[in-house]
Amino acid sequence: MAFTVSFRRQGPRPAAEALSEWLTEQGEPFEADGDDVLVLRALPVRLVVDEHIRAHVDLLPATPLTRLVRVLFDLSVHLGADVRLVGSGDITRPGLWLRFADEQDRQRIAAALGEADETHHHDDVRRGFWQLLGALGNGRDLRWDASRGAIVEMLEVGSDDGISVEDASWHDAEASAGDTVAVTVAGDLHIVAWRWLSEAWPSLRQE
Q1: pTM value surpassing 0.70
Q2: In this structure, which CATH number among 3.60.21, 1.10.357, 2.60.40, 3.30.310 belongs to the domain 2-91?
Q3: In this predicted model, what pLDDT tens digit does every residue of 66-98 receive, in sequence order?
């Protein structure tokens, strides 16, 4: 999954050459892709310099998150800029690490469950994972959506403890009152679920 981190600052934006100099001083290898794009070689990051400075992050299961977040926030300090995760707003260093970690573990779960489908452990893994989601849900209807490769919550459209018709339309354009829609959960449930899965079935780890 790709993320976009933006750096909002007052005053004129620095030129790509200035960012190149900063990356060189930090010992961060990169290469230019045109006049206004810098591609980091050791991290899945593309820095785009236009009206604002943005970092496009193509997160992978093996991406070193601590180093990635450190580079992004060191850059924000250098720029004197706030860090914003597009779609979420302003974000702190720990908050960005958690958001990346949850996505990374979502990818790992999807790969592990796919691997389990190819082995004789399939039924046991699926049964155990279903029971875990029941415990994590604490009354919520949590499920694994294979098409999205993510944990989702099933919500009834129009009910007091469900989701409004308007909000449901973002997830299913044809949803109406009484229907049930699957909404990808926010937070860090994938981190918890991956810890259980990787400890219960270490043979499914792909790192």
Answers
A1: yes
A2: 3.30.310
A3: 999 999 999 999 998 999 999 889 999 999 999
